[in-house]
Design a protein that fits this description.
The chain is an alpha/beta fold and 312 residues long. The protein contains 12 helices and 5 strands.
Amino acid sequence: MKPDSENRGRTDQVAGKLVMVCGAARSGTTMLDLMLGNSEDAMSTGEISRLFRPFRKHHKNPVCSCGEIDCPVWRDLTEGPESVFHENIFLKRPAIKFVVDSSKDLRWIFDSNIWADRANLPMVNVVLWKDPIDLSYSYWRRGENVDFYRKAFFTYYERFLDLKLPFVSLNYKQLVTDANGTLEALCNTLGIEYRESRVNFWEKRHHHFFGSSGTRNQIGSKGATLTYKTEYPDEFVKLFEREARWIESDRRFSRIVAELRAHDVIQGRPSETNGFLAVRRPLWYYRHTLKALWWKYFPLPVPEPNKFRQLD
């Protein structure tokens, strides 16, 4: 990649905008990705980083969400190095004005900010997060302990904030309980045209990779709706009582939540785009780079299907 000094004088600008949807696993990033990509001038790519940086066996033989093994939409979009992937979509598909990437990998997000800055490509990082009880339940119903979510929450959001990237945030509960109002506020911030039909992401024939299989399976379905769980099983509620007390007392957790809320798009926080120049990479970035190199040649097995708890 070119040094920053060789790119600061660039005045040309790609005719489009890149939206990075960031968030810990089970936070609803695939759904938000598909909502933002639900228009003729937008493209939802899914967790495209896995196509360039595979770490599981099935990442090397991906199938587009449209179901075609050799999807014609993608035939020329992945040519060239990963650093020009987002830019290439706009150059090769002039009708596309917004590209949405919901790759969770923090190295990819950090690098994408650098690539966009060097290409003079406008972009916004959107961070989606769940309230503790929602995130905890997402893992618990899949067989994990009630406090398992802590590791996912701390590892992801603490590291994201450590990157010092400009961003706007969005709470999952806000999005699902007031989908139109929340999405309208986000679209206004991103400079995307808002229409109520954008919420119904399942109505468009998307072309994206990976992400939540449960959400992907809704594409093309009739009568799909957004739902938010307001009541939880008694067993979970009892276990979470102790966790709720921990949440109130843990300063580290409170600090992260406060930072996320300070950038909440519903509060009218302005988005910051471009002007990002990397000055440092945290140590975990290099550790992940070494792991990625190992997984390239020795990929992890395909994960087993989720085993949900039997609930009354």
